[in-house]
Amino acid sequence: MNLHEYQSKEILAKYGVNIQRGFIANTVEEAEAAAKKLTEMNGNEGWVVKAQVHAGGRGKGGGVKFSPNMEKLKENAGNIIGMQLVTPQTSAEGKKVNFVLVAEDVYYPGETETKEFYVSILLDRAQGKNMIVYSTEGGMDIEHVAEVTPHLIHNEVVDPCVGLQGFQARKIAFNLGLEGAAFKDFVKFITNLYSAYVGIDASLFEINPVLKTSDNKIIAVDAKVSLDDNALFRHKDLAELRDTREEDPTDVEAGEAGLNFVKLDGDVACMVNGAGLAMATMDIIKLSGGNPANFLDVGGTADAERVQKAFGIILKDPNVKAILINIFGGIVRCDRVAQGVVDAYKAMGSLPVPLIVRLQGTNAVEAKELIDHSGLPVHSAITLEEAANKVKEVLGH
């Protein structure tokens, strides 16, 4: 589950990580009030208006604007709120900006230069350990840095059993070229950042940029946080931060129905029970000359209501030319699934595309007979080869 920048920063602040302060605003009037509140807090004018969407590269798309005075702030807020923001990480149509974060300007002048760094924390699955990835070249073009000058990207592997050690935090600060007060502040910063990562069961932290201010403070200017969905039962408060407006409506609908759904760009939809069988089914579709249109796992329950809901989600994709149901009857009997398919089909009246049903396992024979005698235009199969041939047949290959 992804979080907005302002939500991510609020979490970091609770763990003692220095952040660029700010307030969210849904209207120009709220943005003006937020700017005045920040001025009261730090005594400075100058604010940054940031679009709050689940996508990186907001600055490149015009979703981050500096505002040196109140008039410019109102202009920027008015332009960004409600815009369709297109970035390198969005689709061509972009994402609608529902609200903005009005943040303080932390790039104030001083005797020493400011410097931007890149820091992220994620799980290295190959090693079964956490990894801190960092670079002296922070900012909007970190992807370019990784591609052109990969030697500027460093990493530090952290054993989750012992946590981030002091020597590791100091090593990172040293590799970033820090010294004096900035060195000490960064050691505290990265230590608290790692504690936050572990404390909320995150799957990704990305802070870009981490800023060394002109007075040698270390601040998270931006923050991207992704949470591990499987750990949300331990964090009810964090689960409530979900913004479904930022997600695909079909994915949201599938989740509410208890279906595991991933949309793909093919023409043959599949409905299965179990992730392994889903992968095998997609292979069957590919081998038969089609392309999978989705990954849809109905789980251990495949009654008429759930099957009908799955049909509805699948048929929202105009590219679907056929549907393949591939169920292994273990926890749930095949004849019960078959009855659910028949009932769902009748409840919907008809389907605009051919339907192939392959049921194997407990009561598979009874299930095939039930479908064959239902009077519905359903193609039934027993083996994987039969299912593949049926897909070829309906696609005209």
TrEMBL record:
Its EC number is 6.2.1.5. The keyword Magnesium applies. Residues 9-236 form the ATP-grasp domain. Its cofactor is Mg(2+). One of its GO terms (cellular component) is succinate-CoA ligase complex. Mg(2+) binds at residues 208, 222. It comes from Chryseobacterium salivictor. GO terms for molecular function: ATP binding; magnesium ion binding; succinate-CoA ligase (ADP-forming) activity; succinate-CoA ligase (GDP-forming) activity. Substrate binds at residues 273, 330-332. Succinyl-CoA synthetase functions in the citric acid cycle (TCA), coupling the hydrolysis of succinyl-CoA to the synthesis of either ATP or GTP and thus represents the only step of substrate-level phosphorylation in the TCA. The beta subunit provides nucleotide specificity of the enzyme and binds the substrate succinate, while the binding sites for coenzyme A and phosphate are found in the alpha subunit. Heterotetramer of two alpha and two beta subunits. It is an enzyme of class 6 (ligase). It catalyses: succinate + ATP + CoA = succinyl-CoA + ADP + phosphate; GTP + succinate + CoA = succinyl-CoA + GDP + phosphate. Binds 1 Mg(2+) ion per subunit. PROSITE patterns: ATP_GRASP, SUCCINYL_COA_LIG_3. ATP binds at residues 50, 57-59, 106, 116. It holds the Pfam family Ligase_CoA. GO terms for biological process: succinyl-CoA metabolic process; tricarboxylic acid cycle. Keywords: ATP-binding, Ligase, Magnesium, Metal-binding, Nucleotide-binding, Tricarboxylic acid cycle. Pathway: Carbohydrate metabolism; tricarboxylic acid cycle; succinate from succinyl-CoA (ligase route): step 1/1. The gene is sucC. This is Succinate--CoA ligase [ADP-forming] subunit beta. Belongs to the succinate/malate CoA ligase beta subunit family.
